[in-house]
Here is the input.
Amino acid sequence: MAINSVGLQLGQGAGGGNKHLKSNLPSDAMDALSSISLRCIECSSLYPVLEGGQSVSSPRYRCTCGGVLDVEMKFHFPKTWQSQPARKESDMFFDFAAGNDEAPTAGALWRQLFDERASSPPIWPMGTDKYLLDCSGVWRYRELILPVPEQYMVSRPEGNTGLYPVGIENCSGGRIGHRQIGIYAGLERFFLKHEGENPTGSFKDRGMTVGVTMAHLLGAKAVACASTGNTSASLASYAAQAGMQGIVFLPAGNVAGGKLAQSLAYGADTIQIRGDFDDAMKLVEQVCDEEGIYLLNSLNPFRIEGQKAIGFEILQQLDWQAPDWLVLPAGNLGNTSAIGKAFRQAYQLSLISHMPRIAAIQATGANPFYQSFKKNFSEKVSVRANTIATAINIGNPVSFARAKQVIEESEGIVEEVTDEEILAAKAVIDRAGIGCEPASATTLAGVRKLVACGVMKRDERVVGVLTGNLLKDSKVGIPQQASGIVVEATLEAVRRVLAQ
Ligand code: F0G
Here is the structure.
């Protein structure tokens, strides 16, 4: 399908500024963004978010050297908190940009703030968005994520996903089925964080609420991404909520049915590319640049800020007792970067007393990060990806440099698992009654492998992330023949089936 079939007129925007973005920002938006900078992961160059003053002609996603960017800002307590006399001025903000690695004494105050918000009623009264924001598992941590005026925030709300105790020891009697997962993993204290319980069924909503908030603040009319399916479903939903045009680029024939259905149903312009995700990614970056459409892949550093909330929420659910390990599937490496950054900041803010180790798991058919790790990151490997787990079918991950930093500083590890191991792990998660999409099962397959080879100890506290909902993909790894049993509507016929 040609690009102009979505109503864009190619060429018109090229070099000619930005017909999809407001040229003048309101002063409250300006104020909020003026304290935020973007630092290049590769060469450390620093950029203001608002280049060119009040008129944002084109948002910056990369450094002039080509490197990806990372958000830097000071963290401030809300003004109402600052006015309370018991709180010392020096405890009220922490400046990471100043390279200050002295642990501040503010950890207890931050914990108190977030715990107070988490205890607000889960159903908010109509029309009071403040409660909605406190109820969001992303905006509850807004001072650490994107401190912009609340009227710009575009939230469902999202987050507040389950953290299931599934280890051999931390599974109570009412969860006897869930214990099968702990037995399979070989872990006594094991938790699964189910990000498939987000509004559109994947962790992508955490980054998208922040990305679309930025788009709203910049006055964007259109937003776009390349996707293996979940980012596009999320973008389509949040763009529809905010009244923006959503445009998604998908690898044709390689997106699970549930995800494609979501993009179409939410009304995004859905462009299927004859190529893979890496081709779609290259194209969307060029098109957004040319047309001034706001890019919402995890190349956009504000998406990463939102996904940090997975890390903060896990820590809060564990009463701020950091686990020994955090394990997750790795594709484009945005999530590895985000959760690692959250843990680093939580440690620097004294929210937690130690950094968890991060284990990023790839499919053997899409393992560029694993191959680089095996070479001590001396080289950035890329591959032609081919795995049954379509969500992570990515050969040239955009957030490579960010994720490398996370693995190195957390003394983490990168592992690979075969498609057979992924499907076997998925069957265990599904039969336990929790369920997940194929890519998510990479987590359990990886844990099992790391425990078996002794890297992960049986008594260590481990959290694994399930990234997407079972309903996303009703084909891969689900026994299709089970739905094939059709019988006459008689007791006799049903008895015969049950006796088999
Ligand atoms: N699990 C699921 C279910 C995903 O959809 C993705 C990525 C990942 C894991 C990997 O996360 O890219 O941050 O390393 N899906 C993207 C998408 C690429 O377009 O939906 P990552």
Summary: Residues 18 and 318 are 45 Å apart (CA to CA). Residues 1-17, 99-103 have pLDDT under 50 and may be disordered. The longest helix spans residues 301-317.
